[in-house]
Amino acid sequence: MSDQSRRSELLMPAGSLEKLKIAVLYGADAVYMGTPDLSLRVKSQMSLDDVVEGIEFAHQHGVRVYLTLNLFSHNKDISKLPEYVETVRKVKPDGLIVADPGVFMFVREQAPEIPLHVSTQANVCSWQSVKFWQSIGAKLVVLGREVSYEELTEIREKCQDIKIEAFVHGSMCMTYSGRCLLSNFMAERGANQGACANSCRWKYKVHMKLKDGTVKELNLTEENMELFDFFLEEEMRPGELMEIQEDERGSYILNSRDLCIMPKLEDYLKIGVDSLKVEGRGKSPYYAGLVARAYRMAIDDWYEDPENWSAEPYMKELATIPNRGYTLAFHEGRLTNYAHGYDSSSNVSDWEFAGLIERVEDDAFIVSVKNRLLAGDVLEIVPPKGRKTIFIRMYEFIDANSGKVGEAVHAGAKPMVRIPFSLLEQEDPDYLRTAFPPLTIIRKEKALTPDEWERMKLDQEGHKIEMGKGNPARYDAKRDALQDALDERQKDRTFRTPRVGTQGCCGRGCNGCLIFWHDPQYAKARDILAKRKQGEMLERDGKTVAAE
Predict the structure, then answer these.
(1) Would you state the pLDDT for residue 511?
(2) Which of 307, 369, 259, 296 shows the shortest CA–CA distance to 2?
(3) Which of 115, 357, 457, 544 shows a CA-CA span of 20 to 30 A to 378?
């Protein structure tokens, strides 16, 4: 079945005003965003003023904007709803994403003209649930990531009169579309109030309790590793042992690889999924731009020539974006072991964000540097429109403010460098000025450690196996190579910020932070925050603010 009458939109995340603009420029048909107070991303960096400017910018470019109001509300959130809804009515988004039935009812009563979208947090996984939400006024339903393609096809067939949205790319939650208490338990940060600590991606070690009551870490070495195998046994399944792979680094038993439907994208386009959603409001501007670019090219090319469409060139583009390895996740209905990364939870790519064009002068690009640049680096300038990228090898860097010339630039001080058009002698200056506007992304190759190279090889083999092309024995060999490379790395590392207890609270008033909202030491800070403009957070630790 093919339904080209329903052209799919590309829906990109907008975690900040800058990311919104980049996503729009790089090909999004629609973006979704929210303010820290009432959306499921407390780090969204979007004030209400940003929302207004973002909607104006998007609409000027013919791009739709959906606002998020998708937290599960607690009593303290209800008093904010009237002001929020009144503000939403004024800025006129193209839709409002809601998960909580009470919030849905409130918005329907107070602002019936606003189209309501049902969030993935509502865990809609069947056509019956879609029809329920449609019956009470929903215009679009975001399906859970757990929905298989077979189920998606049936939902589309039985729900023709409501828009359907499905995730195609981004991080995968280990739980049922985010209904998680790990974060609450491990870090007192509410996952369903937008403050998830990603506890599922932490490393865990095995300890043993001796008969005298003492607890000791089970230190695995080459000498004793062969003596142990580790298994989970569920109470009602005696004898059914699920192996846990662990070594001296710990185990990532809950760490999912990233969703990437690109190899099966044509399936979604054929049945007419209305909206193809990319996760990642907390990701970088680099991610927002290049993921949008890859999917924009892929979607347009399929509609232009579906018979000869192939995912390969777009997968190469997505490989330039740091990721945890790609998986088809629930597309076929069941997860495989290759959907999880048991050895490492970091994002890896052999490309990185080099810079962003801040402004275009008559004879030069002025670029903000995002990672260290060295003489000899080859920069690739990636246009928002068009497919021709430009490469340039840099032998020196001109400081845009002082004019000083150097052979290295460090990103820490947020430097600006000048790239004269004279260095691009093969290009027409008029073309450079029009094809590479402000907010154009510049990338470069990244030097990787041996374990990072091995991780990339393992991820690629796992993805091949999911596609029916890989080799399990080769995967096991590559996993052993990765583990050997990881063993060589420095082991005594620490986190920049604590993860446990009150020391783990930044004190700025993150929504969902159980420490800030309940601990007596933040009582004065809560009073101060209550007087602030909606959507604002404290600039620094609330205890410090309260003491001033």
Answers:
(1) 62
(2) 307
(3) 457
